């Protein structure tokens, strides 16, 4: 058995920040999960629906691995990412760092992981790997999935090689701190402003505050859109609250990031942004509750209420981001 020493196998709320936390703590940099999420400019919004989809998708963050790229660039970290179509090379890419005493991050489809209780395909899942033996691998996943967990090498290979939406070709990555790391505190304002700029200037109407406005128009029709409303709507609500988002479709994480920032930076616009995202987090939880209730009861009035709140959320988040980009 090969195990990386001194791994703090701490599961957090969100998969990518959990994996980043493991890799960075091993390098000597210990940041809170909200700070990792915020410095990676992780917050976003997408409403996505197409004929090929069984049900619409509501996303609250940037694309998988973009958060990692953003964080590495922001802090001057050396991010070494590898992809391959070869199963042999894919294993070598993860075994070599671990043999050398370093944990490695993996992007994969969680469907094939033995410990996952809910068997749903999601190709943007991220874990940290810190050990292996002849049959199993040792991973760190979110607290919800068990934190320090094990899965079979065969299952891991299937998860890494799966093709479909948001998947990567056996992607693995390591992170190295420079000899003289940048001050992460100095990167807070640039990270917030970049996130705000992207949110406000989204290129299509499905994204950013315009995407939330679109959701407000579409969600009231979800009972007719759903093939199985009693299953589809509660599942969508569950993903918003419990699907590794930290609650409120990542808004609770960003609220906590901004709160942490207000303790380091004295700025009225920052305090305004924090106040508005604290309000938004509560309303997003209200939306998910109403969506679940509509699926369970068949009451379209719940979706109408959700639509009204989403229109308010579009305005609230636009105001918040306009304040934050003034930092």
Automatic annotation (TrEMBL):
Q: Name one Pfam family in it.
A: BtrH_N
Q: By its UniProt entry, which InterPro entries does this protein fall under? A: BtrH_N, DUF4872
> Where on the tree of life does the source sit, at the highest rank?
Bacteria
**Domain DUF4872: residue ranges:** 155-324
| Residue stretches spanning the membrane | none
Per UniProt, residues of the Butirosin biosynthesis protein H N-terminal domain are 14-142
Protein name (database record): Lantibiotic ABC transporter
